[in-house]
From TrEMBL:
<feature type="domain" description="YCII-related">
    <location>
        <begin position="58"/>
        <end position="124"/>
    </location>
</feature>
<dbReference type="InterPro" id="IPR011008">
    <property type="entry name" value="Dimeric_a/b-barrel"/>
</dbReference>
<protein>
    <recommendedName>
        <fullName>YCII-related domain-containing protein</fullName>
    </recommendedName>
</protein>
<comment type="similarity">
    <text>Belongs to the YciI family.</text>
</comment>
<feature type="signal peptide">
    <location>
        <begin position="1"/>
        <end position="19"/>
    </location>
</feature>
<dbReference type="InterPro" id="IPR005545">
    <property type="entry name" value="YCII"/>
</dbReference>
<keyword id="KW-0732">Signal</keyword>
<dbReference type="Pfam" id="PF03795">
    <property type="entry name" value="YCII"/>
</dbReference>
Amino acid sequence: MKKLLTVFLLSTIPGLILAQNSDYNAELADSLGADDYGMKSYTLVMLKTGGGNIEDKAKVDSLFRGHLDNIGKLAAEGKVVVAGPLEKNENNYRGIFIFDVSDKEEVAKLLLTDPAIKEDLLAYDLYNWYGSAALPVYLETHSKIEKIRP
């Protein structure tokens, strides 16, 4: 009776719509760390141009090759779930990472494994981000549609 009364009271609040998802999979939600909305906390990294200035093109190329390899390593470890470059912009943002890690200090340590960041060719800003808990499983599909790997 109490549950029925609660549902009735909540349903009378204007604009509030409560609906159960018939596709809900509790086991999957739990395995991904999802809350009741299918969401969770991540760390968003905005990569930007760093202050480093290396004249040696071969060294710069090597550092960015290491940058790409490091992204692959962090993705394989399940730490990075989204990564990609941005087009040129007025903010000097170069790309983004979304880490499946909510602790910013841990993310900062992981970022120092990137040789382009370590050499200050890239710098970063960190933000808490709340998004779909399903992000980590999209990488499995991406690997099946990626014809050429960088």
